[in-house]
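Hi U.,

Before I forget, here's the chain from the pilot set. I'm dumping it here mostly so it's searchable later in email.
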Amino acid sequence: MRLLVPAVIPASYRELMDRLAYFDQIPARRVQVDFVDGVFATPASWPYNTEGSDLRNHIGQGIFLPRLDRVKYEADLLCKDPEKIAPELINFGFVRLTLHAECTDDISGLIARMRHLVGAEANFIAALVSIGLSINIDTPVDVLLKHAEEVEYVQFMGVDTVGRQGEPFNPIVLEKVRAYRRAHPEAYIQVDGGVSLENAKDLVEAGVSRVIVGSAINHAPDLAKTAAAFEALKTPFGV
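Structure:
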């Protein structure tokens, strides 16, 4: 099963398209795009307000994410109010929405509202949109365990500070992944933040389904070679 999911935190529509074109060299089957609101996490990358690059304008013109026939796009909503951004992202072609448990005091309520929103805004597309739940490094794994049946996948942050790439990996996440895998042998588990070729093997052994990789891919001297090295670490837990 494919392990690698390249990730980017673009600050404009043009930067988003440039990064997606870069990932197309691999070619990537899944791509994660982070949306940082400057409140839940910093620095802000969203909304795209550079002149001529507003995502809303492109959606209004019937423009969608590229290569939707073979790439599944995932939006990591590092936002205090993810419900505000979700409808346009779905309309743009995102099929996975990752919510962060720390952005709300009512996780179940947020998930329920997002599901209602997806159904209301996306109509027949609703069944194709998956919702995941992520926790920060200091949040107990019990939070994910409590809401396991409410989401399609879970995400563990592997760094102390979220919202930016290049942060150091915190190995504490390995035991958290192991604990969740023991409780849910069939779960889809991904880890985002600080992932490198040096720790990816440990993550696979801990039980991840996918690794979300930012800096190690975006700054790779040889993209194809680096991507191939990640994919060589096959996971038995992929879907």
